[in-house]
Every structure is written in structure tokens, then in C-alpha cells.
Amino acid sequence: MQIKLFAALGLSALLAVAGCGKKEQPAPIPAPAAAPAPAVQDMVNVPVSVKAITLGNQLADGKVATPQSSFAPKDTLYAVVETIGSGKVALKAAWTFHKGDKTAPVNETTQEITASGPAHTEFHVSKPDGWPVGDYKVEIFLNGASAGSQTFTVK
Amino acid sequence: MNASTSGPGNDMPDFSNVESGASSTAQESTPAFKTYEIKSGDSLSKIAKREYGNANEWRRIFEANQDTIKNPDKIFPGQVIKIPL
Q: Does ipTM top 0.90?
């Protein structure tokens, strides 16, 4: 009877030691959280800057439907300015006509915006009696400083 | 409707009747405006008549230019003003 008791105790102890020796699986390392898309973040938290200027004769959802650099005299001319960044800025479109070394101002329109990320600002001009054939330029100013330009022709 | 080098004796076209506008997907802080250089014989009511079809709209132009026009009866050739669109 005493031998059986010792044997049972010994077996229990052996099982306990075996159990303790079992290696625990390390907790899986959690996958790093997806980093925020830096490109988008940068576009929001930086001062406003002009990314692109596109010309066309028609808009679709605030953007130029078909970019073009040649227009017909009766077209309405659209310049869409794509900006990134945030803040309050003044965008100005200065349209000019060029003939040889002479330049004639056509129109200057200013739009003040408070951007909180990527935005599209459109400027348009039209001339009821038709645009004179020739070479034109639209220059975009951001807070008074040139931010780019596009040249185009009217045929 | 800006100052233009066009006119008598100048072979450049006349762009005085150009119409313009602007809009944005961003919040527009203030209404868009175009700039215009005062010419001899101009008055705010004449400009308002030409731009808006109503001379009584002169106050709209005056209010947009209170930083530069203190007296609506005193504007000067060469002065550049804002015309709200």
C-alpha cells in the first residue's frame, strides 16, 4: 500500500516536471500598424502649392474634360489649377495675348481659397465677339508669385 | 476687362469685353474678382453699368475696394481696382 502511494506520487511529480519543461510558444509579434499614406499626409499639412495647370474648353466635375492647347475663336477658355496643401491663399490667372514682341493684357481674375488638401480651382474667360486668332498665355500666381504658366493658340 | 495696350494707334486687339469667372473645389474665402485699371472718364457707376448692367451696383465695387478708395467720387486714371464677379 505504501509502495503504491509512493509510486503514484512519483508519477505525479514526473508529469508535473514534464509539464513545466514544455516550452511556451512566444506570443506572435503583431504586424506593424499600417503607416499612414505619407503622400496624402504631405498634401494636407504643407502650404498650398500649384501642382498642375490644365487648359480646355469644357469642364467635367470641376476639371478640364479634355486638355488642349489650341482653341476656336468662340470657345470659352478654362484654366484649371490643381493645388496641394492647406491654407488660405490667393490664386490669380493672368491671361495675355502675344503678337511678335508685343503683349496685351486680356484679363486678370483672382480667387481666394482656404484649402484643406488637394483642390481644383478653375478660371474661365470668354469673348462674345470671338477671340482674335493668335498666341496667348495664362500665368498663374499664388499669393502674387508666379506658380507656372501655359501657352495656347486660337486658330 | 483689364487695362489693355489696345486702342487707337495700337495694332493689338481689343479685349475690353472679355468676361471672366472662377470657382474652386476648396472653400472660397471671398468671391472671385477681376482687376481693372481706371481710365480717364470712368466713374464707379459707369463701371458698374458696364460690368453688371446696373449703375446702382457701384456700391458693390466701392465696398470691395475700401482699402484703396476712400471717396467713391474720387478715383483716378491708372488706379487698379477689384471688380467682384
A: no
Q: Where are the alpha helices (DSSP H) in chain A?
A: 2-21, 38-45
A103–chain B nearest CA distance, Å: 8
Q: What's the burial of B23, exposed, middle or buried (CB within 10 Å: 0-12/13-18/19+)?
A: middle
Q: Residue B13: which of A91, A104, A126 has the nearest Cβ?
A: A104
Tens-digit pLDDT profile for residues A70-98? 999 999 999 999 999 999 999 999 999 99
**CATH code of the domain in which A76 resides:** 2.70.50.60
Residue A112 at interface with chain B, using a CB cutoff of 8 Å: yes
What chain B holds in terms of domains, given with CATH numbers, is 33-84 (3.10.350.10)
Domain that holds residue A100: 42-154
Which are the contacts of A13, defined by CB distance < 8 A and separation ≥ 6? none
Residue A146, chain B, CB below 8 Å: the answer is: no
